[in-house]
Design a protein that fits this description.
With 121 residues, the chain is α/β, with parallel strands linked by helices. Helices cover 26% and strands 12% of the residues. It is globular.
Length: 121
């Protein structure tokens, strides 16, 4: 069991995304705990943790509540692209932060992990 136990001792870059409206796996009981494990193991430099505002565990309810929710799939795609860039080109993604739910635009097909400070540059 020790070989597969969650320890936070990651050996490669890892990006965690979690919707702040996830009722299936609440952040405080899941991703927050793992992020603390990663930090405690001294591996925080190869981990990024983004909270997706308006994101749930899956996107099935977006059509019912488009004014409240945002699809998380586009953010997964953006995170994967950021991870590829980090691993293949050595370009680290932005620091941990909340990914804001945009007031306008195409939330179904787009998501940026750039934090507000980077976007203002």
């Amino acid at each position: 069991m020790a070989r597969v136990a969650l320890t936070g001792r990651i050996g490669r870059p890892l990006i965690t995304l979690h919707g702040d409206l996830d009722a299936l796996l609440p952040e405080a009981a899941d991703s927050d705990v793992y992020a603390r494990m990663v930090d405690a193991s001294g591996r925080g430099r190869v981990h990024r943790y983004y909270t997706v505002e308006g994101g749930t565990h899956v996107d099935g309810l977006y059509d019912t509540y488009p004014d409240l929710l945002r699809p998380i799939l586009p953010c997964y795609r953006s995170a994967f692209d950021a991870l590829v860039s980090w691993v293949e080109r050595g370009t680290p993604p932005p620091a941990d932060h909340a990914v804001s739910r945009p007031a306008s635009g195409d939330v179904v097909n787009s998501c940026t992990l750039a934090d507000r400070a980077e976007a203002a540059r």
